[in-house]
Amino acid sequence: MNTPRHSRPKGTLDFVPPVADELRHLEYVAARLSTRFGFREIVTPVFEHTDVFTKSSGDASDIVTKEMYSFKDRGERDLTLRPEGTPGVVRAVLENRLRIPVRLYYFGPYFRFGRPQKGRFREFRQYGVEAIGEASPYVDAEIVLLGDEFFRTLGISDCTTELNSIGCRACRPGYRKELVAFLYAHKDELCEDCRERMDRNPLRVFDCKNEGCREVVADAPKTAGHLCDDCADHYDGVKRALDRMKVSYGINDRLVRGLDYYNRTVFEYISSRLGAQDSLGGGGRYDYLVEDLGGPPTPSSGFALGIDRTMMAMPEKPPLPEGTQPPRESLAYVVWMGEEELKHAVELAAKLRAEGVATRVDFDAARPKRQFRSADAAGAACCVIVGPDELAKGVYSLKDLATGEQEEVPVNMIVPRVRALFR
Ligand code: HAM
């Protein structure tokens, strides 16, 4: 084949068969689990008005300042390809006046302009859940449990959960003051980005991957030591609930998450198989976001899991527990001998499809040998052969492509015989 003239944009992925099937499988597992926890699907636009993100993800967050695909459309509107799902979901809940509390899940593509590397893409996929209008620590724990079950269902055994609490609008200012004072004392040891973050959004310093900055923040004051009584109680409640639900987790008192809307609970799922981009997913509580986007005070909590990274962390052949496998149809090929038999082949294909059997006919190849080759290339399970002898006898020949065995099947028995072969 010639060298292709067009390549995909940097930081994007193609999902060709059968990898695309895997993607659908993950979506199926996500949908089943979410439904079991009372979440219902929501689908929102891939682009939103830019201020939906600047007013929520945080105008000092890396995502908003450096990573958004923002553009003006032909009507001079400021739009942005969604870098994450939460703000759009909250916007849709308010705009459609959904009754709160409401539990929603979603699955789709997201866009961030970062430097592409292993596990970090410019277009990637997320599975997310949002419990909007629920305040209890049990809700946070249930959401952590749901993500944990998702990864376990897919056979990802090396996933660990990290937990922290970052307080609320009552206790965070005091903490922030102390942190800024600490960072100023270590100003010279911080990278340029962090020196800038120090005033605008000091908690972001905890996210910096720079070695020098990491060493500094190792000794920085921790959020969990500065919680007000209500936040401390809530944090204890989350831990107790997780224990009761038998979810194992570790405390990471430097975990703050890269988005501005969080308060209290934050968590992340980490995999050792991923390298530097080791976060399989993350989430937390965002009790102010609904209000910040124009709604009533509404405590909320959720997560988003990176589907591309999940696929990278999955074992070669994931164990598929009973009932989680999507109904994947096997393929039958109808092979015809001549023009007369082709007419029967078309009718037979229609009949098989009407009975739910995935069926193809190679119309281009006049010679049966080439049709068999097409069937092989398409990964078909069997060929149903329509020849003059078969038609005269009122049968079809059914060839099992896995074993090479061939048998004659009465016309009225073909559907169950093909089905039996698939099983
Ligand atoms: P996030 O931590 O920004 O959170 O993203 C969640 C997950 O998406 C990450 O842990 C990672 O697996 C995946 N991800 C993020 N960026 C990329 C990328 N460039 N390439 C590949 N995968 C990526 C959120 O998005 C929040 N909306 C989560 C949330 C929902 N919080 C509350 N509700």
Question: What would you say this structure looks like, in words?
Answer:
- The chain starts with 18 loop residues before the first helix and ends with a helix.
- The chain has 15 helices and 16 strands.
- Helix 5 runs parallel beside helix 9 (229-244).
- It folds into 3 domains: 19-170 and 227-313, BirA Bifunctional Protein, domain 2 (2-Layer Sandwich), CATH 3.30.930.10; 172-217, no CATH class; 331-422, Anticodon-binding domain (Rossmann fold, 3-Layer(aba) Sandwich).
- It is 36% helix and 22% strand.
- An 8-stranded mixed beta sheet has the order 1-5-6-11-10-9-7-8, with helices on both faces. The chain has a 5-stranded mixed beta sheet with strand order 13-12-14-15-16, with helices on both faces.
- The longest helix is centred in the N-terminal third of the chain and has 18 residues, at 19-36.
- Histidyl-adenosine monophosphate (HAM) binds next to strand 6, strand 10, strand 11 and helix 11.
- Histidyl-adenosine monophosphate (HAM) binds at residues 84-86, 112, 114, 119-121, 124, 126, 128, 130, 258-259, 279-284, 286, 302-304, 306, 308-309.
CATH architecture of the largest domain: 2-Layer Sandwich
| Structural category | alpha+beta
Overall mean confidence score, pLDDT: 93
Strand numbers in spatial order across the main sheet: 1-5-6-11-10-9-7-8
What's the level 1 CATH class of the largest domain? Alpha Beta
| CATH-derived topology of the largest domain | BirA Bifunctional Protein, domain 2
Uncertain residue ranges:
none
The tally of helices reads 15
Terminal residue distance = 37 Å
Characterize the main sheet.
Answer: 8 strands, mixed
Tell me, briefly, the overall form. elongated
Query: Strand tally, please?
Result: 16
Q: Which percent bin holds the helix content?
A: 25-40%
Radius of gyration (Å):
27 Å
Q: What is the beta-strand fraction? A: 15-25%
The count of domains is: 3
Which small-molecule ligands are present, each listed once?
histidyl-adenosine monophosphate
CATH superfamily assignment of the largest domain?
Bira Bifunctional Protein, Domain 2
